[in-house]
Amino acid sequence: KRRIGLAAAEIIRDGEIIALGAGTTTTQVARSIRHRKGITVVTNAVNIAMELSHRADLKIIVTGGAMSGDWFALTGSTGIAAVGEMFYDKAFIGVDGVHPEHGLTTNYPDQATIHRAMIRQARQRIVVADHTKIGDIGTALIAPVKDVDLIITDKSVTAKSLAGFSAKVLKV
């Protein structure tokens, strides 16, 4: 997950506005943007906001909402409204599953709505998911794969798991 976070951070440019959904892999993206400056980070993850809070060169915006479980995720109508009030250069979304036919999924329906709002408002939509998530299906739909510009995963992904994905959307 750390290497996925590093690869994702490489495509972030100074001065961009990015959305980071809650999750362990997106937390690695946040930890990897140390070399970037002037970035505005919008997140519904309390832990991501706290990790980045010491960075004077970053602007951190937390969506608000109701705390959801042990994921440190803020969800609900307040968070959805906050996400929808901005446009993002890039949105980084973590998933519980990404399947070529069934799309991006999560096991947390409240989280799916926040991720959907981030995807809707972003110029570039990036999924960050380790190999165990590729080809898997969670319980709640976030979005179809066609709504994603890039999937960043690790080298342990199998050829069988990759079958059905377009080469342009997947970066290993």
Structure notes:
With 172 residues, the protein is of the alpha/beta class. The chain is built from 6 helices and 12 strands. The strands form 3 sheets. It has a 7-stranded parallel sheet. A 3-stranded antiparallel sheet has the order 7-8-10. The protein has a two-stranded antiparallel sheet with strand order 4-5. Helix 2 runs parallel beside helix 3.
Please outline the helices and strands.
Layout: H1 2-9, E1 17-20, H2 24-31, E2 40-43, H3 46-52, E3 59-62, E4 66-68, E5 73-75, H4 77-84, E6 88-94, E7 97-99, E8 103-106, H5 109-121, E9 122-128, E10 140-143, E11 150-152, H6 159-162, E12 170-171
Parallel strand pairs: 1-2, 1-6, 2-3, 6-9, 9-11, 11-12
Antiparallel strand pairs: 4-5, 7-8, 8-10
Oligomer: single chain
Order of helices and strands: HEHEHEEEHEEEHEEEHE
- The secondary-structure class comes to alpha/beta
- Radius of gyration (CA) equals 15 Å
State which percent range the strand residues make up. 25-35%
The low-confidence runs, each spanning 5 or more residues with pLDDT under 50, are: none
Mean pLDDT: 94
Distance N to C terminus = 12 Å
Say how many strands there are: 12
Give the helix level as a range of percent. Answer: 25-40%
What coarse outline follows from CA principal-axis ratios? globular
Question: What about the largest sheet?
Answer: 7 strands, parallel
Distinct helical segment count: 6
Give the spatial strand order of the biggest sheet. Answer: 3-2-1-6-9-11-12
